[in-house]
Amino acid sequence: MAILALRPPSTEITLATTSPDTFVGLHRIFCVGRNYAEHAREMGHDPNAEPPFFFSKPITAAVPSVATLPFPVATENLHHEAELCVLIKTSGANIDAADALDHVWGYSTGNDLTRRDVQAQAKKKRRPWDMSKGFDQSAIFGAVAPVSEVGHLEGARIRCDVDGVTTQSADLSDMIWPVADVIAFLSTLVTLHPGDLIMTGTPAGVGPIKRGQTCRVQIDGLEDAAVTYAP
Ligand code: MN
User: What is this structure's pTM?
Assistant: First the structure.
């Protein structure tokens, strides 16, 4: 068998961990839509009407925290979405919620950057979300902390600020579907594998980041996920 090297072999996408010089390979990025009731309401939906749904981003969208980036093309309404991210360590399909947390390697902070104007057009025209969610550099991640270090973050707060002004603030327990349920439900749709990362949805308060601004996502016990845009 011959494999044509259409990309250089050194292009594996990795995420930093809290251990110096230690990285984890990224396999896929899944994202949960509307997993906090107040955010579902602010986007014009009834949080009790339907279970959460999933979309994905290409792993090439991943950027480590404390990046300074050019402002994304093709949007004039870039939104932040502060999210808890879950990194899977073992494969599974139809995972029982009671066993789901055994599949978790660790957690990180994340920012599910969104071209809200492009997404609004997609919703209106009933088109896919890919170009509003999966564009270049659309996912900022803090270092991944193993469960052995941080546990499962019970009671932790999640916050987001833009240039130091708080925009989002919630408790992880405000999630409609907790992490175990998200893993169980997603694993009925796809077989999960090591290196899969799940962005678990964002609380209320999503809003714009403008050129020259810095956006910081914080979760108690984890390293921040920060991004600064060029003027
Ligand atoms: Mn999101």
Answer: 0.96
Residue 222 covered by a domain:
yes
CA distance 18 to 202: 23
Q: Is residue 107 scored above 90 in pLDDT?
A: yes
Distance of CA 8 from the midpoint of ligand 1 (Å): 31
Q: Where are the alpha helices (DSSP H) in the chain?
A: 37-42, 97-100, 116-125, 130-133, 147-150, 179-186
User: What is the whole-number distance in angstroms between the Cα of residue 134 and the centre of ligand 1?
Assistant: 11
* Distance between Cα 34 and ligand 1 center (Å): 7
Q: State residue 117 phi and psi, 5-degree precision.
A: -65, -40
**Rounded distance between C-alpha atoms, residue 77 and residue 74, angstroms:** 9
Confidence of residue 66 (pLDDT cuts 50, 70, 90): confident
* Cα(6) to centroid(ligand 1), Å: 32
CATH number for 192:
3.90.850.10
Distance 149 CA to ligand 1 centre (A): 26
Q: How far is the CA of 110 from the centre of ligand 1 (A)?
A: 9
What is the total count of domains within the chain?
1
The SS3 assignment for 42 reads: helix
